[in-house]
Amino acid sequence: MKTSHILAAAALTLLAATGAQAETYEGVNTAVSTKSRDEVNAEAVRAASAPNQNVTRGSRGPETVAVSKDRALVEAEAVRTAYAPDQNVTGGSRVNSKVISTMVHPMDARVQAQQGSGAVAK
Fold first, then answer.
1. Global pTM?
2. How far apart are the first and last CA of the chain?
3. Is 107 exposed, middle or buried (0-12, 13-18, 19+ CB in 10 A)?
4. Which residues lie within the region annotated Disordered (predicted)?
5. Taking the mean position of all CA atoms in its chain, how far away is CA 41?
6. 84 near 99, Cβ under 8 Å?
7. Structure-model confidence comparison of residues 36 and 18, the more confident one
8. CA dihedral in degrees (93, 97, 99, 100; nearest 10)?
9. pLDDT in tens, 90-121
10. Cβ neighbours for 84, distance < 8 A, ≥ 6 positions apart
């Protein structure tokens, strides 16, 4: 029984000795800033007095979007892509395969039929 008490005491002493080691304190890091205190203060005042600063995005109504193409052109492009015969097939679908479209695009066929019948394509 005494041996077990001695071994337990030795283990606790060893555990306490290893746990007592701590990192050294090197102080607080110094702040590095490119702005002066007055510039930071002025920026904080501007930010604090900004209107609607706590309003969530989208609650102010629709946001403006810069439009680069005509709506009709984008719609025609989307329809053409949606009706493309090979839209779901890529060159990597099968090993060493090549996609060669043998099907006429439906929109091209429609335009050719209109031009052939004398109708004017829109």
1. 0.32
2. 103
3. middle
4. 30-64
5. 33
6. no
7. 36
8. -160
9. 666 666 666 666 667 777 777 778 887 654 44
10. 105
Q: In 3-state terms, what secondary structure has residue 122? A: coil
Write out the two tokens for 102.
């043998």
* SS3 state of residue 81: helix
Q: Kindly tell me the sign of the dihedral angle through the C-alpha atoms of 72, 74, 79, 83.
A: positive
Q: For tokens 């679908």, what's the residue?
A: 93
Residue with token string 């097939």: 89
> Residues 28-42, buried b or exposed e (16+ Cβ, 10 A)?
eeeeeeeeeeeeeee
